[in-house]
Amino acid sequence: MFSLKNGRFTLLKYMIFLTSLILLGLSISIIVVEDKAVGVHRNLGIQLPNSSIVEWLWVPLNPMNLDHGPSMAIFIAGAMGLLASVMGLGWIVWDWCGVRGYKVKTWGLFTCLIELINTGTGLAITAYVYVVESKRPEIPALLSFWKYEEFTREYYICDVFPFGVNDGIKTADEIYSFPACQHYQAARYELIPIASLAVVLAGLCILHCWESGAFRLLKRAWHPVAEDVEKRPVGVH
Predict the structure, then answer these.
(1) Maximal C-alpha separation, the chain
(2) What are the phi and psi torsion angles at 10 (to 5°)?
(3) How many of the other CB atoms lie within 10 Å of CB of 139?
(4) What is the pTM of this model?
(5) C-alpha angle 56-37-166 in degrees, rounded to nearest 5
(6) Is the dihedral of CA 97, 92, 94, 209 positive or negative?
(7) Residue boundaries of the structural domains of the chain
(8) Contact, 70 vs 133, CB < 8 A?
(9) Tens digit of pLDDT for each residue in 74-100?
(10) Strand, helix or coil for residue 141
């Protein structure tokens, strides 16, 4: 029933299935974790410690000068990972169900395309997020100067906001009601295994397309005239 190279149940197919399954779990996880962290940015504020109500100085949870780029990129990486993993799982399950010929090969080619796009997207997003998060501006000592800086959501929740309320009676996590900073960091860390799995899955899918003969469909699409001439009976003009 199980074969290393030939047959319906091969090692390569199991590897694609398992890699897709792990990628599916990580993609769902990164979306859920990032979404929970983003939920902390409510239109609320904490009064600046040691300031009077007359001064009306509040440290906002959702200021206007936040850079939403890294968070949006993480959501895109998760969505692309979901699509790529579902395509990989569907391809293998369809094959295991006994579907053969043009349909499964076409699905395989389309899956390879999605996997390559997901790989490029995942690597680009991982590099982008880590580069942006590494360029963190110094936190101004005065709250009134914060509006002239741009902070990422992770940096604001992990460092900037706690810096503003560090003289208060509550810690930042108590204000958030959950460890929001750790959620942001966990989502960013998950980008690395997701991008790595995307590379592995793309390679496995390309190899499977090659072994199954799916790439021959492209050759036929590119050279239909040449094949028609070869199949024409001798003596027919």
Answers:
(1) 101
(2) -115, 165
(3) 17
(4) 0.81
(5) 40
(6) negative
(7) 19-231
(8) yes
(9) 999 999 999 999 999 998 988 888 766
(10) coil
